[in-house]
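Example 182, ligand glutamine.
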Amino acid sequence: MLQGARKEHAKALVNAAKEMNLDVEIRNLRKSEEIGLIDGLILPGGETTAMKIASQSEDLLSALWHYVETKNVPILATCAGAILLCQNKLIRATIERNVYGGQLHSFQTMIKSTIGDGEFPGVFIRAPAFKSNECEEIAYFDSEPVGLLDANRMALTFHPELTDDLRFHRWLLTSALKTKGL
Ligand code: GLN
């Protein structure tokens, strides 16, 4: 919750939980003390530079990396969140920022995905692109991978929270249930 597209993720998660008949409690993490017991983590899009600056005073990001490494928490990371995952070596991939140009070059296009049924409306906002990976490729824009899965960590270069298609949020909830043995 340091910066970026946060509320939309919370809404998508609540809606996905409703579809799955689950009760979820959303924790808005701003400080390292707020991490507590979380069963799944969303790293939203936004601006990585701003996130890193905002994190410095509260030490949220380094505490989060430690938490997810020790607790094996499933992660859904989108756009700037995907950049943070790659830069901190939490998935086996490298990424380059702002590959498609600035805000004006943001775009929406149908992409292919192995998660859920049929094509997915990919919203790309000052999006990064994966340069290399040793992960399972789960989404493609043309032949370029735009979604990766490494064990229970998912990195997407687009913004699923800005669409009505909840398949990626459902994936996070399903993974959280699995990790808890439910
Ligand atoms: N351009 C941003 C960055 O480099 C990411 C954009 C996004 O999250 N929509 O951090």
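Summary: DSSP finds five helices and nine strands in the chain.
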